[in-house]
Amino acid sequence: MDIERQVIALAGVGHLGRYVCEELIASPDFDVIVLTRQRSQNDWLSSKAVRTFTTDYTVPSILTLLNDTAATTLISFINLADTRYITVHSALLDACQQSSRCKRLIPSEWIGDIEAYPSKPDFYATTRLPFRDILRAQDAVTWTLFNQGWLADYFLPSSKTHMKPIPDEFPVDPNAWTACVRGTGDEEQSWTCGRDVAKAVVELCRASDWEQVTYVAAEWSTFNAAIRVMESSFVDPILRLHQAAGKQAHRGLFPPDRPMPRTSKSWPQIQSVLEAHAGEKELSEELELAQVEEMMVMSYLACPKEATLRHREKYFRRIHFRPLRELLQAAGAVDFI
What we know:
Blueprint: E1 6-11, H1 16-26, E2 30-36, H2 43-47, E3 51-54, H3 59-69, E4 71-76, H4 84-98, E5 104-106, H5 128-136, E6 142-143, E7 145-147, E8 150-151, E9 172-173, E10 178-182, E11 189-192, H6 194-206, E12 213-215, E13 219-221, H7 223-231, H8 237-244, E14 262-265, H9 267-276, H10 285-297, H11 305-315, H12 324-333
Helix pairs in contact: 1-6, 3-4, 4-5, 9-10
């Protein structure tokens, strides 16, 4: 007798969502559909033979798609930095409430310690914070806010990951082999690679009960320590063996035997930008960057260890979360992470 596969709906797949999409496809327990505003064909989704449905993200549109596909869970990757976030996610929630089967929702958070720092970065105070209140005020739909700290993929060459490089925002640019360290560089961070995040999301879809906040992290470290790990990973052990044996080896993951050039930006420099834009309603690129830099220097993106390790034991015992050194070794051995 065939066991019915649950249908998981993804809204606004983007880059991290590609990993979740792939892991759901690989699972025997789920089917995946994608909701998108895009009317033209998405070549990547087409290559995966994923069913894709166009929506304007109004309640009637979303509701029809959820009911027609018999979706049971809706996961959002729609990242908006203004009040449109509330509009879109309220529509997702309302559609779930009215749907026949879709009674679980993961809204778009994907950040750090939201319990200790619920309004950081500052634009979350006017987007995520109000929607969290809307979620708590209802009980028709089960939900969780999923957080993973930094995505460790940003330490990888862009050819190795679905994640698009963000060299102005992330302190380390592996493609240019440079770094701009914010603060001292010794502030605690946490990170997890996108593939392992996706595996965790799939495991969570299997879980019968959800907490209101879910954390994952592969490790807790600092950007200074991460740079040292990258500098020590010029050539992986297999390549070293080939070189020792006089065999021709392909180029390593990073430039050989060259330390990573570094610049820095101090906390007072970041504070001055935040103060210069204090009270502004429009989120400029300069202000958004400063808010993210504040997250680095104040360790707001480091997921809380106790809760994260408890969730690892409760939900994710079958997943091995790869620390940076292991991730770099894997990236040196395969074409794509």
